Amino acid sequence: MKYIISLITLLLFSLFTTASALHLTDDSAAVTVFYGRMQQQVVWLSPGRKPVLQQLMVFFKQAPFLGLEENDYQSQFIYSMAEDTLRTLPDTDAVAADRRITAQAIRFFCDVAYGPVNSAAVRYNGLAGLPDKRPEMARLLADCLLTDSFSFFLQHIEPEAAAYAAVKKTLTYFYTALSDSGFAETPVVSLKADTTNIALIKRLGQLGFGDSIEAGRLQESIIKAQGKFNVLSDGVLRSGFLRALNVPFVSRIRELKVALNHIRWLYSYRPYTSVVVNIPSTGLQLFQDNKPVLYSRVITGKKSTPTPTLASRITEVVLYPYWMVPHRIATRELLPRIKLDRSYLEDNQFEILDKKGRIVNAADINWQSLSAGNFPYVIRQNTGCDNSLGIVKLNFYSPFTVYLHDTPGKNLFMLKQRFFSHGCIRVEEAASLARLLLDEANAQTMDNLIKSGPQADQKPVVLPVKIPALVFVLYNTAWPDNMGEIRFYEDVYNRY
């Protein structure tokens, strides 16, 4: 047994660290690799191999609990092949059927390890595509079959991330509850927080908070559930809490499956340094060597100006940045204020630039003649502690003109609901995040500049990061908090 586990571990190391040179558009090359390893033998449908095919069927039956869809892998065809009456196939048909089963098995196991292709669905993906993992998965699968260790295969290819295990456990709980023959969902409509609210007690029990109720501690159960749904945890029933309670279990399952596959996708990029922002939870985590090293509260976009989902690379830190006001904000929000009171520009440290980047005297501009369709200028906010980007900005490319940045409005981080920006991501711990991405010399430079404060006519200072860090901005209404506990968040952008 120890030999088998060691072999699997060695093969997994190869699978997760060796970039395959093959970039496939179908499964044929991976299937070829598999049968080359298996000496061109029929594997699943050969005499005496029924237990192996049955084990594959057991794995496929677990697909829903893995955040996958069983029918995506031609499972009915494979189950039909397991029937004794269909096992007497001509040799050519048996070979074709066996290869078909192999192709689906490789796809399934790749999806378990890395997530389906669509799990990387973000509005902008600036990261190079991952190398095709199917040939390596084919080798691993073949070697496990050759060493009679197939029954251990699934548990060894799943991501080892704590977040993955936590989401999977929660998903299993919801599926198990839903499969109970006596399960029925009754909406909670009463705001009474007492034992006369039968629907409330039933729902709390379904959600796993029944122990406290049975012990006569209903208030304790309510507070725990409020924490689960990221609402004010004071034991008082409010409409927002009731909405969260009444979300159907099938909807919660859908949210958890999306989260599970996002985590698989993120895990595929280890051991890169990664910054992960989850919009609904307004939280950020920095991962180094596969471990979370920093958590920060963030402020994300309003419903009317949502933060876009994306994947990119952080390339530099800017200290004392300018804020180049986006045209939409400049014309829709600032221009009406300037027309009313031109001193608004000076009071807020704004300068006017022409299209060539030259400073223009604001007094020489006929502001009343300007509009959204006629605005040949750029408004720039000067550096300093009152700059809307704060004193630290982290740059990454995207087509959306959004950044990770500091903010002078620190008080907003105390709120539970933090959706106030025009799309950018305001980071409470922006300086700490930047420091962890810089080398020692540049981190010291940053600390010195922050300590000394902005100088007169302070210019932005650009510091390259030590190694470009991956940044992922995702949208998951089910997501681990900074302690690893799975919480459900409001669907502020109505994506589910």
TrEMBL record:
Active site: H405 (proton donor/acceptor), C424 (nucleophile)
Domain L,D-TPase catalytic: 273-446
GO biological process, one term: cell wall organization
Gene3D superfamilies reported in the protein's UniProt record: L,D-transpeptidase catalytic domain-like
Molecular function in Gene Ontology: carboxypeptidase activity; transferase activity
Family: Belongs to the YkuD family.
Protein name: Murein L,D-transpeptidase YcbB/YkuD
Protein's organism: Chitinophaga ginsengisegetis
Upper taxonomic lineage: Bacteria, Pseudomonadati, Bacteroidota, Chitinophagia, Chitinophagales
